[in-house]
Model the fold of this input.
Amino acid sequence: WTLFGFSLTFSEYGGPFIGDCSYCGATNLGLHCIPPTTMNSISFFIYQGMFATITSALMFGSSAERVRIMPAMIFMFVWTTVVYDPIAYWTWAKNGWLNKLGSLDYAGGTPVHIASGFAGLAKALVLGKRLDYDRNTEWKPHSLSNVFLGTAILWFGWFGFNGGRRRMLKHFLTKWRLQAYIIIPVIVDSIAHCNLITCIAASTGGLTWVLFDYRNARKLSALGFCSGAVAALVAITPGSGFVAPWSAIVVGFVAGIACNMGEQGKETKIKQH
Done:
């Protein structure tokens, strides 16, 4: 990120597909702002570095216990450079082609979640199943307490993930005011609003998953609540600064049901084969 990642992703004078070397080696950073943000470039550099880090880490949930640390580190470096940097540039940079088309991605639906999700799927397909995998064994988390604690920490961190993007909102209001007020229910320049939307969606997703599990299996599960909450957090991220509270309920509800059905479908297919 320091050597060239930030520059390729957020330089102001790149083409429609990738940035230039204006900020390579973290040079030319200071208190000035990098369009389209209103955040000083040093803070923006650190904040976006966390985005790049978590994106490359997300995909490894699909390949746990199947990769060694050194190949994983090399893969993360290459993948971030070749995949994440260009997609983030398209979406958020001043001259990115998606940004110029009017794409509204508040906190990373395309560069973070879609990119890492498909990368994780590709890794799982290439690496294959665990050597000790048994289709007839019901796999459960070894510590539900750790799952719940991890979800709570993740949920809290998401407030910084979504709420921290508020400084991007001024750009969207200025450039896409007409589309915003016609297509999108509400835009509020407030960190509190973003975090409210995030919390409503996550709560709805968790409750939806739990109730859907109860409908199918007549049991309530803390693991189900955690799964639904995380699914809804992912779903609300691109629109957390653009939608009204009632919209967050809809997003959380749909995410909870869709991901629950997907998980059940996966389990059914595994048992059939």
About this structure: Residues 171-188 have pLDDT under 50 and may be disordered. The chain has eleven helices and no strands.
